[in-house]
Sequence to fold (808 residues):
Amino acid sequence: MRGIDGSADDHGDVLSFDSFRPDDELRRESILGLGNGALFVRASAPEARLAAPCSVSANGIASQHYPGIYRAGLYDLSTAKANGAIVRTASVPRLPNATVLAIRRPGGAWLGSNSAELVEYRHALDLCRGLALRTLVLRDASGTTTQIDETRFVSYANPFLIVLRWTVTACDWEGLIDIGTGTDANVCNGIVDSQRPLESAHIVDASHADTVDGLSCAVFRLAAIPVTVAVAARVDVDGQRTDVAQWQAWDEEHARFRLVRMPIARRTPLRIDRIVAVKTSRDVASAHPVDAACNEVRGAPHASRLQDAHRRAWTPGWEQSRIDSEDAALRLALNVRAFHVRQTVSPISAHEDLGIPARGWQEGYNGHVFWDDLFVLPEGARTQPALAKGPLMYRYERLDAARRAASSNGLRGALYPWRSATTGDEETPDFRYNPLDGHWMRDNTHLERHVGASIAWNIVHYVRMSGDDVYLRTYGAEMMVEIARMWASLSKLNATSGRYDIGGVIGPDEYHDGYPGAAAPGLLNNAYTNVMAMWTLRSARDILDELPAEDRAALVRKVDLAHDEPECWRTIASRLSVPFFDDGSISQFEGFDTLREVSDPRSFSPGHSRTDWFVETKGGTTNAWQLVKQPDVLMLFYLLRERGVRSLLEQAGYRFGREAAQRSLEQCLGRMTHESSLSRIVCAGALAGTDPKKSLAFFRRALETDHVPASGSAQEGLHLGSHASLLNVVLHHYAGVRYETDAIAFEPGWPPGLPRVRMGFNWRGQRFVLCADAAKAELHAAHDNDRTVDVRLAERTVCVAPGDSVNV
Ligand code: BGC
Fold:
């Protein structure tokens, strides 16, 4: 099965590139990047900073290499002047490049792909071991050949450590070798075109110091937020800590480098290990981050022991999460996705106050948290449900901010922000930059109120999956109540129709943020928003009903819930408006059918990745057209499936049969530009039950996201929502595994043509393995499960004991 670049090894668990492509390097740095949930490091060539400084970007992307280290959840402030106003938003700052490492023969040039002939090259991601690997065989100007084998990891055992290991072999020479290392604090954020006008210099007052025992440390402040960060490093050669007296240091702008000269024997590998620690003033209770970072590095054992500890921490979880398939390309494609999700939602991040950034911990979308956790969380928690709790608690910790936002918008309950960072306040900038013409366009996406429904959805599904009633009683129910209250107060009774309307919102499709020519932004009765509001209102009421009496009473007191509120939610849910086309299919919002029709949405903005930007360069707006960026109505079918959509609509008094459902899907598909990475995979899920062939075609196209050279924006950060959804679609849509409170539902509809897949999951502490293809789907209960589980098939329910299987 096609859909991924690089090549798979025999086990399908190594993504590798066997030739150097300067024009693809920035994307590979991202896709081969490593993280542990607290740190993320792009896989940039460590030698480039010394061997070819011009190829390394300090602040722009007109370069081959963009070294970047990011601390999860660390945001600075970015500002820009836009149309006379000041735009402000939180941004994840790019930290100093602490992975500088290069070698040369004395008197020669530092070796790198620009300064020497590249005889052999390989850059790979070893998923099973959680390592990035590089091999370079370089021939210098004097004709001698040197091999560098690089192993890099971001420790899954220690949240603060990055380790870079080089084995250098002088293939056909011997003598002296210079080793250069350093930390370059002369970096700005600059890889995202559309964020470029934002203030990007986040590192201020950087200074470098060396300790008497041979460590180097860079310390700096963030420009706008009172946080100090220290990056300490140690270099060991052949397992020995190098003595500070051996080093020769030199400074460049905000950067300090060091050189040590030593002998190297022909064909006798020389091992150079660089161990880096990053600590911020937020990570340390009493010590200064400089002391903390230096102590971390000083106390770190030899790199091979760090690598062992990393392997021990990484492997067990990975073995459970890893997907198997005889089709090596599919296996690799799915595993690379699972890998990146595990690098973000990890046992380390579970203990920190961290949400799930839409693009991972890189600069894309400033590192903000959107609604994408709706897609990422099910995969992040697939084999370890407890990992979901971290991101869910991130939302709970910001419940008060959401309450304040509701109140300042004249609403009750909790109004969660569309884009969230540290405080939980709205981070959506008022304007966004159009890189095609340099204009600032109004950004109204803060009106995507549906983010509240995605948080509610995650709470309900986490509890179904984990059985964590304590979480529900202590935190989840309170959030559900406050989100339901928000929907209730946003809904206004329309005296003419006798139904409730929700106005002034935007659905997932961001190409419609208002009516053409209207004075204020926002739409009336976005179908996705309203149906998900119905779902939340009903779910919140059900949860209240099911809470033990004591907990319910405590919650009622805590949030001052009036006794008639839950009943009022039910009334609103059964009378919320949903717009329909004349043929009975769901319309995206009130008035969508009056907009101008487009015969071929994909050819509307030829050669441009964003139709809204293109249309704006012509003085127009996508609001005028029936042109849809990503699934909106269709999202309902992805989440609720046809059965759920019909049931909610019927409970709201609408007649909505199978044909209308079918027509709704067709109406949407014909208008979509698929300019969000979430688009095609959502279509695959939404169509899985009704049109497996079309669904699989979308699935295959979705496999290309981030994996096609010179396309998309993977270099800015990976599209985690799209990555995770590929796995969700396999497990929940194709294999038809759904978590219920008392059972697992299992109704496979495997698309013919999708190779056999084997993947594990955990439901309420019981482990299962799914093996499925078009001929047969099986669920195996692990031998060490501690109880029998009911598995609900289409026509019957079977009890599956530990070690047993069920086939469909
Ligand atoms: C999509 C949003 C998504 C965001 C971050 C946007 O392009 O329209 O739905 O949340 O990207 O991934």
